[in-house]
Specification:
The chain has helices at residues 133-136, 189-213; strands at 2-5, 7-12, 14-23, 26-34, 70-72, 81-86, 101-107, 114-118, 122-127, 141-145, 148-152, 154-160, 166-172, 178-186. The protein contains 2 helices and 14 strands, in the order βββββββββαβββββα. It has an 8-stranded antiparallel β-sheet, with no helix packed on it. Strands 1, 5, 7, 9, 12 and 14 form a 6-stranded antiparallel β-sheet that branches. It is globular and about 75 Å long. It is mainly beta. It has one domain (2-188). It is 14% helix and 42% strand.
């Protein structure tokens, strides 16, 4: 199973900004803090690829080489950032999506931990040194305390433990730069082909049994 990471298509900058995109069969709407365009790689891009090195996001595949990322410059810890999932481009039919993965770049700084306080249960799936660790000569750190994800130059991937139609979180304290994207596991095309072959074999065997019995 590969991760289908969101293809972010359009956005509006601001503390109360938004972005929307497509992720497999779902439409994704983000509402919250969106940093200035020079620090995002949303379409029309392309821009800087912050998903390298890929180690923090290989679960099993990283968002790279697609550079899409939503970057935040949180100025008010009271701002709630929300990702919602829909079945339609009009954002009217909400979808409950299992196994949502969230890849995170540069949460916190050395000596200044920053917390994402979520409203949904999650687990940390992978942590490793990422884009900014070589620059700061620091080690990527992500820790979990209940619904809180605490980072010190943290690069990694978390997964939400139950199906969600919405993910909400706040950030404290304010930090200059951090970013994320989301994705879900989807079967590889070869898996669909194998399933079709197995179903066809099953139908043939079933027909043979019926013909022998008649």
């Amino acid at each position: 199973m590969q991760i289908q990471w969101a293809d972010w298509i359009d956005h509006e900058v601001g503390a109360n900004g938004w972005a929307w995109g497509k992720m497999a069969d779902y439409y994704v709407l983000y509402e919250g803090d969106v940093r200035v365009p020079t620090q995002t790689t949303l379409k029309p891009g392309p821009g800087e690829n912050y998903w390298i090195p890929e180690d923090p996001y290989l679960v099993p595949n990283s968002p790279s080489p697609n550079p899409d990322i939503i970057t935040l410059q949180q100025s008010d810890p009271q701002i709630k950032n929300t990702i919602s999932f829909y079945l339609d481009a009009a954002f009217t039919m909400e979808a409950w999506v299992p196994d949502v993965h969230m890849a995170i770049v540069s949460l916190g700084q050395p000596g200044m931990p920053v917390t994402y306080s979520f409203e949904q249960d999650f687990n940390i799936k992978k942590v490793a040194d990422g884009y900014w660790n070589d620059v700061t000569s620091s080690t990527s750190v992500l820790n979990q305390s209940g619904l809180n994800l605490i980072g010190s130059e943290g690069h990694g991937t978390i997964v939400f433990t139950e199906a969600v139609h919405q993910i909400s979180w706040s950030v404290d304290p304010s930090e200059y730069w951090h970013g994320f994207t989301v994705g879900i596991p989807v079967p590889e095309p070869s898996a669909y082909g194998l399933l079709g072959v197995l179903l066809l074999i099953g139908l043939i065997l079933d027909r043979r049994r019926k013909n022998r019995g008649s």
